[in-house]
Amino acid sequence: MNNPYDTENIFAKILRGEIPNDTVLETEHALAFRDIQPQAPQHVLVIPKGPYVNYDHFAHTASDAEIVGYTRAIGKVCEMLGVQPGAGGDGYRMIANTGSDGVQEVPHLHIHILGGRRLGRMLQSKT
Ligand code: 5GP
């Protein structure tokens, strides 16, 4: 596997404090902040603090502590947004766009958490 990490990507700059962000949650291993172009009333990006390009890179090479910390942060953000179906929320969608077919814009792993409205079908077209 070859996953060269671009240290000048926009989320690396956010992690270094070079670009401001609207932080929702910061933990030892993760940062969650609001998307600059929200696609739903709730649209938060959750990123690991380590230099991982995408989820499979993270899953193969991150430490157990990073994986647990990142996953728990995602759960905490869902709780903070009030979208958990099991706690009275109306649900949400998690998206991890990856690579060129996945139309990933920023090459640092990020999971989108979207909620606050009916989001429609998962994919709009097969093309
Ligand atoms: P992707 O297409 O890579 O899954 O999504 C990248 C997301 O990052 C997009 O939804 C875009 O709006 C968001 N984004 C890009 N630049 C910035 C930024 O500087 N700040 C924030 N908060 N979000 C950004």
Question: Could you explain how this protein is built, in words?
Answer:
The structure is a single chain. The protein is an alpha+beta fold. It has a domain at 1-41 and 49-91: HIT family, subunit A. It is 24% helix and 20% strand. The protein is built from three helices and five strands. Strands 1-2-3-5-4 form a five-stranded antiparallel β-sheet, with helices on one face. The longest helix has 18 residues, at 64-81. The radius of gyration is 15 Å and the shape is globular.
Shape: globular
What is the mean pLDDT?
96
CATH class of one domain: Alpha Beta
User: What is the string of helix and strand elements?
Assistant: HEEEHHEE
The rounded distance between the terminal residues' Cα atoms is 28 Å
Ions, cofactors and other bound molecules: guanosine-5'-monophosphate
| Structural class label | alpha+beta
Q: What is the CATH homology-level superfamily of one domain?
A: HIT-like
Note the total helix count. Answer: 3
Strand content: 15-25%
Q: How would a textbook summarize the main sheet?
A: 5 strands, antiparallel
The total beta strand count reads 5
**Major sheet: arrangement of strands:** 1-2-3-5-4
Helix content: 10-25%
CATH architecture of one domain: 2-Layer Sandwich
- CATH topology grouping of one domain: HIT family, subunit A
Low-pLDDT windows of residues: none
Radius of gyration, Cα only, in angstroms?
15 Å
